[in-house]
TrEMBL record:
Keywords: Methyltransferase, Transferase. It comes from Paenibacillus konkukensis. This is 23S rRNA (Guanine(745)-N(1))-methyltransferase. One of its GO terms (molecular function) is 23S rRNA (guanine(745)-N(1))-methyltransferase activity. Its EC number is 2.1.1.187. InterPro entries: SAM-dependent_MTases_sf. It comes from the Bacteria.
Length: 219
C-alpha cells in the first residue's frame, strides 16, 4: 500500500537512475538481486522505473527469509521471488551485476560471492531525519538513543570500495489510511506497546519525512 501511494517513488527513481547510468548504452540485460526484499515493493518499483526509461526489462530476483513477505511479493509478477537466508543465498557465485540491500541487514561475504567481477552493490540506509515525525509520536518525551549510522558506513567501506553516496530527503503527505501500515512496517514500533500504537494511530500526522542514503560500492 505504501509504495502504491508513492511514498518511496523518489528513492526508486534514484536507485534505478544509478543502475541505468552503470549500464550505459549497452544492450546487456541487467541482473538484479534484492537481498532482503521484504514484500517486494522496492524491487518492483525500481524495475518499473528501469523499464520506463530503458525499455529492456532487467532480470530481477528478490530473496527474503520471511515466507509471509515473499508470499506478499508474489503479487508482483515481474520478478522471481525466493524464500532464503541472505547468509546462505541459494545461487551460484558471480551471477548478479547489481545487488540491492535496502533498509535491511546485510551479509557482505555473500554479496561479494554473488556479484560479477564488475558488479555493484547498492545499499540504502536511514539518515538522521528518517521518519522523524513518527519517532516523535511513538516516543514523545521518552529517552531514545542518539541516531548514528557510523558503524554501518564503516562496515560497508571495509567490504567494498565506495563509489558514491547520495542522500535522498523529502516530505510526503501522510493520509490517515497510510499511518497504520507505516507503523507496522517500521522497526521503530517493534518495542512499543500496543496501547501506545493505538494512541499514535489516533493522532494526526499530516506528513512524514523520508531521509535516506544510497551507498554504492564495488569489489
Amino acid at each position: 500500500m505504501l509504495c502504491g501511494e508513492g511514498l518511496f517513488e523518489p528513492l526508486h527513481a534514484a536507485v534505478s537512475d544509478t543502475i541505468l547510468k552503470r549500464l550505459g548504452s549497452g544492450n546487456a540485460q541487467a541482473r538484479i538481486l534484492d537481498a532482503g526484499c521484504g514484500e517486494g515493493s522496492h524491487l518492483s518499483g525500481i524495475r518499473d522505473n528501469i523499464v520506463r526509461n530503458a525499455g529492456r526489462p532487467p532480470l530481477t530476483v528478490g530473496l527474503d527469509i520471511s515466507r509471509d513477505g515473499i508470499g506478499a511479493a508474489t503479487a508482483y509478477a515481474n520478478a522471481i521471488w525466493c524464500v532464503g537466508d541472505i547468509a546462505a543465498c541459494p545461487f551460484a557465485g558471480g551471477q548478479f551485476g547489481f545487488i540491492l540491500n535496502m533498509l535491511s541487514p546485510a551479509n557482505y561475504a555473500e554479496f561479494r560471492r554473488l556479484m560479477t567481477a564488475d558488479g555493484m552493490v547498492i545499499k540504502v540506509i536511514p539518515e538522521r531525519d528518517y521518519l522523524k515525525e513518527l519517532r516523535g509520536a511513538l516516543y514523545g518525551g521518552l529517552p531514545m538513543r542518539t541516531f548514528a549510522n557510523d558503524r554501518t558506513l564503516q562496515l560497508f567501506r571495509e567490504n567494498f570500495r565506495q563509489t558514491d553516496a547520495k542522500r535522498v530527503r523529502y516530505r510526503f503527505p501522510l493520509d490517515k489510511q497510510l499511518l497504520e501500515p507505516l507503523l507496522r512496517m517500521t522497526p521503530l514500533s517493534w518495542r512499543v506497546t500496543e496501547e501506545r500504537l493505538q494512541q499514535v494511530l489516533a493522532m494526526s500526522l499530516p506528513e512524514i519525512t523520508i531521509d535516506l542514503m544510497i551507498l554504492t560500492g564495488e569489489k
